[in-house]
Amino acid sequence: MAPNGGTVVVSDIKLEKLLCMKGGKGEASYANNSQAQALHARSMLHFLEETLDMVQLNSPDVPFQVVDLGCSSGNNTLYIIDVIIKHMIKRYESSGLELPEFSAFFSDLPSNDFNTLFQLLPPLAANYGGSMQECLSTSGHRNYFAAGVPGSFHRRLFPTRSIDVFHSVFSLHWLSQVPESAVDKRSGAYNKKRVFIHGASESTANAYKHQFQTDLAGFLRARSQEMKRGGSMFLVCLGRTSEDPTDQGGAGLLFGTHYQDAWDDLVQEGLITSEKRDNFNIPVYAPSLQDFRNVVEAHGSFAINKLEVFKGGSPLVVDCPDNAKEVGRAFANTCRSVSGVLVDAHIGDQLSEELFLRVERRATSHAKVLLEKLQFFHIVASLSFA
Questions:
Q1: Where are the domains of the chain?
Q2: What does the pLDDT look like over 149-192, one tens digit per residue?
Q3: Which of 292, 112, 110, 148 is nearest to 215 (CA)?
Q4: Among the four 271, 313, 347, 349, which has the fewest Cβ within 10 Å?
């Protein structure tokens, strides 16, 4: 962990060692606060299957290799890998081809809670030394070899021409670093009095936009070397419908309203300095469709099979929508599950607890509006080699 004090996100190396969704199985863990992501992902399965239908079927002598980039630590990644492999098995069988062996790589930053993820992994079929058909007849088991691959997806992670399918959902909006100019007092892009770019200055938003473009270009460059010639990529990230990058849509409502106000509370109560707040920024950028398209077209290696904005719905999953306290707690836990590790590193565990108590209190008093207005839009992209 980075020490408490100073800016924790000044470099990509520092952020890469630190950033992760909140691990374990506690109330604010990602594993227990990713139901909305599961619902949103399932609503887009038809797009994923269209992408899989374009993947070239290879010789059974060569393993079919699938990667989930930004896998995190819950059940969602296991569900998706299962969907991908079962779909490809059907394609092989309907083509009358012998089945290859399947490998799945779960990849995320080294700080990811791989332990929790692998504890959720179903056991390998006991007869996975025999034929693939024998293996598939074993229920409750997985029919693929599994491995964890730690590292940033903004760089190379796999051997050249080794991967058939890349899948990455709800990850590409995370930047490799907060733009240095956003936390530099001498810069016109200094994000003073804010912890996110929603409602920030045009200069700050442009710095974030440039960082997103740089990061996505690095991502595409790495995948263009790692993917097999007949492979495909299915990518989903937070997006926005506005052309104005200072309007971050659902992400803006999540991090730019009650979350922002809770940081201001800590300053006004003398618990942290204003400089301490100003040196913390959420390294997220929700691109517009055009932002995304421009980077893919400028890179040139990939053809766009599908690129659209998809309405994903609310990130809040609550049993009793009329219970304001439950809504407030769900909002605070959602914020904490994705940003808590960064907050802990920046202001320490005790002040982090104080921050999220204030987030919950503020969200509780605005529960009705949050349920009505907090909606996420996603950029959905299906790419293959040009």
A1: 12-243+282-314+376-385
A2: 999 999 999 999 999 999 999 899 999 999 999 999 999 999 99
A3: 292
A4: 349
